[in-house]
Amino acid sequence: MFEWIMNPEAWVALLTLTALEIVLGIDNIILISILVSRLPTAQRQPGIIIGLSLAMVMRILLLISLAWMMKLTEPLFTVFNQEISGRDIILLVGGLFLVAKSTHEIHHAMQPEFTENGKEIEKKRVSFVSVLVQIGLLDIVFSLDSVITAVGMASHVPVMVIAIIIAVLIMMLAAKPIGDFVESHPTLKVLALSFLILVGVALMGEGMDMHIPKGYIYFAMVFSVIVEMINIKMRKHLLK
């Protein structure tokens, strides 16, 4: 079980896989931060911690059940000469939910409701349990991508599990600063939600066997963030 410790290639795979898990988990952090933003302030940090913990447990369970994972790729039925597997259904439903949820949040941000005297109505609070259920369901979708990457990068299950645990612990430390920063900059929040729509469309494309290179998506995200950070700095200088 621990023979991989003396294998240099396993350590290289551990470092590389940990970095990839963190990159693949950025969209997960953004989504969790936006979902918990509807909770009372005191419940937001516990929601982030529990949400990321759910993601970690989900990924480890999927890794342990590799045999079941392989069955997900077997065709269940055919639609218009397109074979549909269990994995395709999960990606399609998850991608569709991600697009719908992100679009709803953008609409809410762009058109807030007001009372008769002109005051903005406070955001409707949601229950802690309902937020955790949404996070858990979407963790399954994000975990599929993460686990498939892990299986392709490393041949030792302990290496994959350790990489996932390290990545999630780092994400737990980074989640609150990222969430606070996104929440305090409305335009950046809309941009983050647009990223999630892009990810949702990519997931649906994967579910229909239309493979979209992840590099294109992440390049578009990084480029957009750089442009928006420049805009934020410019606005600060103009306000001064």
TrEMBL record:
Keywords: Membrane, Transmembrane, Transmembrane helix. It comes from the Bacteria. It comes from Seminibacterium arietis. PANTHER family: MEMBRANE BOUND PREDICTED REDOX MODULATOR, SLL1022 PROTEIN. Belongs to the TerC family. The chain crosses the membrane at residues 12-36, 48-69, 89-106, 126-144, 156-175, 187-204, 216-234. This is TerC family protein. It is found in: Membrane. It holds the Pfam family TerC. It is a multi-pass membrane protein. The keyword Hydrolase does not apply.
